[in-house]
Structures are given as structure tokens and as C-alpha cells.
Amino acid sequence: MSFAHQLNILSSVLASTAAGWRGGAGRAFFKQPEQRPVLFDIENCPYCRMVREAATALHLDLDIRPCPKNGTRFRAQAIEVGGKLQFPLLQDPNTGTVLYESGAIIDYLFRAYANRPAPATYKKTPLHTASSLLASATRATAGMRVKPSRAPEKPLALWSFEVSPYSRPVRELLCELEIPYSLHNLGKEHWTEIGPAVQRLKPGPYVPKAGGKREQFMQKHGRVQLPFLQDPNTGAELFESEAILSYLKANYAI
Q1: Is 33 exposed, middle or buried (0-12, 13-18, 19+ CB in 10 A)?
Q2: pLDDT at position 97 over 70
Q3: How many whole angstroms separate alpha carbon 221 and alpha carbon 228?
Q4: For residue 106, what are the CA distances in angstroms to 8, 23, 49, 124, 169?
Q5: Do the Cβ atoms of 103 and 129 come closer than 8 Å?
Q6: What is the 3-state secondary structure (H, E, C) of the chain?
Q7: Structure pTM?
Q8: pLDDT above 90 for 217
Q9: How far is CA 7 from its chain centroid?
């Protein structure tokens, strides 16, 4: 790992700490809807972050439409869907719901996909908002402003969870490059999963919780390590955040 990338990850750890490490674990196993809800999103927007934290808690996958400042690829579509340029914007084809306002979206997601109100940890409060604002400040403008890019023919796929320090830089770059992607939330499902993939809190071989999304991922890929990127346009499949960042810059940045 290069020194620059080490600093990038350290800054990302500080952002996760500022955000209270919300969006790291799913509370239960929830059934995925038939279609992924669509989130028009700015990665470093504190209000968008709060929605993505809730999605991780629900193990809910999303289709991300990046809308960085000065972006041109999805901002017009967001206006067509919701009528104004405001983020986050959720479009759920399963129920025909279109929502602005992070607090309303969070409560909707828990009621729609967990059949309960949003828990205190994820409900929008002044303290929650302040910590998310601080997390955004920690990352400065990363994941906020558009960068020139080539649009992929097909959306990419990213396995991640919101508070993962290694996943955040990848999501930031995807946003800056306006690359649409399916976000597969793979939050931690048990205390034995605490810690990085190379050295989790519990020693010995890693065994994911039976029946969870992590077990499914491990059966397919042989390990649970995030982020993991798939690009159907090239057939590329990559672990390791630094390798993914290099790949995205080489293939899509102008």
C-alpha cells in the first residue's frame, strides 16, 4: 500500500469515527425487495450518508445514481423524478415512492423493509446530523465535485458497507466520475466480524453467520473482504481499495 493511500485510509477512519461508526452492521436479516430502490446521491453529502447508513443496517441494496456538484449525467434525471434538485432523493419502484429529506427516507426504509420505525441509532436527530457533518468535513471535498469521465455502458457493482474506511474512497471516486453502480450492502452480522478482514477480533478461521449475505458472498468468492468491485463492461473483478481506485482512474477518468 502506497504512503498516499495509507493517508487516504487514515482520513477515512477518522470520518468513520466522526460518524460514530454507524452503518457498519446489519441488525437482522431482511428480505431484499424485488427491485433495488434508486438513490440519487452525493457521496460526501452528510444527509445522503445518513440514508446509506440506514441501508447498511437493513442489508438493503441500492442502485446509486451519483450526482456530484456540477455533474451532468444524472442531475437532470433527478429533477424529472422528483421535481427539484435536492439530495438525497429516493425512488422506490417497489412501492412507487419518491422521497426527499433524509429523515423521511430513513423512516420510510425501516417501515417498508423492517416493518418498524427507525431505531434511535439511525433516526435523524441534531446529534446525528452534527456527526455526519463532521465526517464530511474530515474528507474535505472528496466525493463531492465532478471529475471528467467516460460513461460506462452498463452500471458497475460494488460490495461495501457504509462505514468501511476502505470502501469509502472507492465510493467517493465513483461519485466524482458519475459512474452508476449497484451498491450491495454487506454490513457486519455478528461481533466475531469486528475488525479488518486480515485480522478480525475473533482469532481463527472466519465463519460468517449462517443464512446471511456474507455467507453467500463467501461461498461465491472464497473470502469476505471489502470493497469488491465488478465491472460488467470489462469483466474485471477486484478486491483491495487501492487496486480498485487505480482501475477506475485508468478506465474511466479523462
Answers
A1: middle
A2: yes
A3: 10
A4: 29, 12, 11, 8, 24
A5: no
A6: CCHHHHHHHHHHHHHHHHCCCCCCECCCCCCCCCCCCEEEECCCCHHHHHHHHHHHHCCCCEEEEECCECCCCCHHHHHHHHCCCCCCEEEECCCCEEEECHHHHHHHHHHHHCCCCCCCCCCCCHHHHHHHHHHHHHCCCCCCECCCECCCCCCEEEEECCCCCCHHHHHHHHHHCCCCEEEEECCECCHHHCCCCCCCCCCCCCCCCCCCHHHHHHHHHCCCCCCEEEECCCCEEEECHHHHHHHHHHHHEC
A7: 0.94
A8: yes
A9: 21
What is the chain's length? 254
Burial of 174 (0-12, 13-18, 19+ CB in 10 A): buried
Q: How large is the average pLDDT for residues 70-97?
A: 97
Give me the residue label for grid cell 477518468: 253
Mean pLDDT of 114-123: 93
* Structural Rg of the chain based on CA atoms: 17
Give backbone dihedrals phi and psi of 85, rounded to 5 degrees, phi first.
-95, 90
